[in-house]
Amino acid sequence: MHNYLKIVAAMLIWSTWGIMIRWIALPPVVVLFYTALIASIAVPIILKVRGELDLSGVLTIWPLFTALALSSVVNNISYFYALEHTTVSNAVFTHYTAPIIVAALAPLLIAEKLQKITLISLPIAMAGMVMIIVAGGGLDLGGGSTRGILAGTVSGFAYAYLIILSRKLSQMLMHHKAVVVLLWITTAITAPATLAIDHEVSLPTALLLLTGGLVHSTVAPLLYFSALRRVMAQHAAVLGYIEPLAAVPLAALVLGERPSLSSLVGGFLIILSGYLVIRDATSRHDTLQ
User: Fold this and answer.
1) Which has fewest Cβ within 10 Å: 89, 96, 158, 220?
2) What is the pTM of this model?
C-alpha cells in the first residue's frame, strides 16, 4: 500500500502541470529544459545526502536509458504542447490513453501476460477518444484544438513506453540511476532548441520553473520510480488516472475552463476502461494470494 500511495502522491503533483504551463507561458521545450536542468542538479544532491547515489552499471545498459530519456522528452513536449493548444481536460484525457497502451504492449516488452480485459477496455477507450475529438471540433488538422488533441495522444503513447521502461529498470534495481540519467539526457537533448529559441524569463516565471524543477521533476519522479519496484506497470499506469481526475477540476477552478459534455463523457469512458483493467488485474492478484 505504501508504494501505491507514492504513485498517488506523484500523480497529484503532476496534476498541477496544466495550470503551471499556462502561467509559465514559455515554449514546451524551454519549460522542459529548465525544469530538467534544475532537477538534474537537485536529484543527485538528494541521493548523495541519502547515501543512494550510485551510477555503476549505467553504461552497460545505455540503450535502455536512452530509450527512457527519448520517451520522456517526447511525452513531456507533446503533453505540454497539448496543454497549451487545447483545454486541460482534452489534454489529460488523451494523454491517459497510456494505461490501455501499456496493457497492450507490456506482454510484448516486459512479459506481462495479455489479459482478456484488454480486448474489452480498448474499444471503450477508443470510443472516448472519438468523443473528445468531436468535442474539440472534429478532425480538422488545421484547427488549434485538434493539434492539441493529437499532441495529447502522442504523449499517451510516449507515456506508455515511459512506464514500461521505468518498470523494467526498477525491477533491475536501477530506479535511482534511471531518474538521474533521464534528467541528464533530457537536459542535453533540449538544450540546443532552448538556446535557439528567443525567450525571456521574468522573476515570477523563474519561480514557477524552480517549483516545477524541484517538485514536479524531482520529488514526483523519485516517488514514482521507487514505487515501481513493487507496483506492476499495468497498475501504475491506471493509478495515473488520479492526475486527470484532479487536473480537470483544478483547471475549472483556477483557469475557468468548463469542459463540454461530450468531452466529459469521452473522458469518463477512458477512465472506465482503465478502471476495468486495474479491477481485473487486482482480482487476479488477490486470487493468487
Assistant:
1) 220
2) 0.72
**The three grid cell numbers given for residue 262, joined into one nine-digit string:** 461530450
CB burial of 154-182 (b: ≥16 within 10 Å; e: otherwise) equals bbbbbbbbbbbbbbbbbeeebbbbbbbbb
Among the listed residues 225, 154, 240, the one whose alpha carbon sits nearest the alpha carbon of residue 183: 225
Render 139-204 in DSSP notation, one character per residue. S-TTSHHHHHHHHHHHHHHHHHHHHHHHHHHHHTT-HHHHHHHHHHHHHHHHHHHHHHS-----HH
Cβ atoms 156, 78 nearer than 8 A: no
Element (H, E) at 64: helix 62-85
Q: Using CA atoms, how far apart are residues 53 and 203, in angstroms rounded to an integer?
A: 32
Beta carbons within 8 Å of 289's beta carbon, 6+ residues apart: none
Q: What is the pLDDT of residues 65-90, one digit of tens each?
A: 888 888 888 988 898 888 778 777 77
Q: How many CB atoms lie within 10 A of CB 113?
A: 8
* CA 159 remoteness from chain centre: 5
Within 10 A of 275 (CB to CB), how many other CB atoms are there? 15
Lowest mean pLDDT among 113-127, 212-226, 255-269, 274-288: 274-288
